[in-house]
Amino acid sequence: MKKNTVVAIDGPVGSGKSTISRKAAEKLGFIYVDTGALYRALGVFFEEKRIDFNTNVKVDIRFIDKEQRVFVDDTDYTDKIRTPKASMLASAVSAKPEVREFLLELQRSFAKNNSVIMDGRDIGTVVLPDADIKIFLTADAKERAKRRYDELILKGTSVEFDDVLKDLEKRDYDDSHREHAPLKKADDAIVADTTGNTFNESVALVLKIIEDRL
Ligand code: DC
């Protein structure tokens, strides 16, 4: 039997990683693991409990109707993690080396027996350094901010474009300059620049990179 295929996709905020990865995984019949959701769920959990991070907590990912759901101490946090506050809490918690270490085994376990697309910031560099295919997904900062701005407006959030751009540039800077597992292209990653692409064009680009190497 052919060995499972492991695809690591990293990239900055708003590069379209999660939507593109989800769609590409669906087309290939791979499972899709969104690792940002783990940092988000832990950030929200510890804020809610008003305690500092500790490793007595149980985190797991369950696939329900093919959708990834994140459980902390057996409570489903998935519907609480997509707010600007959760982004901020995730960013803070993700800078702690003990948190990154704590989540390592769980993330790696998905790549052991499954064909998987896993996305995050350090998947090709730290979590799955032996991934079969590594992609660094990026796009021009203004375009990424425009995509994020359009998403927020669509949800009914009132925001200024310049604030979204500033926020995104700050998160890019923080994610790339933190001491532990910063966002960085793996030496053997293929850069996929989606500037100017439609969503479908970006999915096709990622699928082509993967299929060419299968
Ligand atoms: O991809 P996202 O916006 O859901 O990620 C939330 C935060 O978690 C973001 O600040 C970066 C961090 N993160 C990380 O440090 N490593 C990962 N593999 C995934 C996310």
Overall strand count: 8
Q: Could you tell me the mean pLDDT?
A: 94
- Ranges where pLDDT stays below 50 over 5 or more residues in a row are none
For the biggest β-sheet, the strand order reads 2-6-1-7-8
Alpha-carbon distance between the two ends: 14 Å
Order of helices and strands: EHEHEEEHHEHEHHEH
What is the molecular shape? globular
Q: What bound compounds does this protein have? A: 2'-deoxycytidine-5'-monophosphate
Give an overview in words:
By secondary structure, this protein is of the alpha/beta class. Helices cover 49% and strands 18% of the residues. It has eight helices and eight strands, in the order βαβαβββααβαβααβα. A hairpin with a 2-residue loop joins β3 and β4. α1 crosses α8 and α6 packs across α7. The longest helix is centred in the middle third of the chain and has 17 residues. It is globular and about 50 Å long. The chain starts with 5 loop residues before the first strand and ends with a helix. The site of 2'-deoxycytidine-5'-monophosphate has 14 residues, from α2 and α3. 2'-deoxycytidine-5'-monophosphate binds next to α2 and α3.
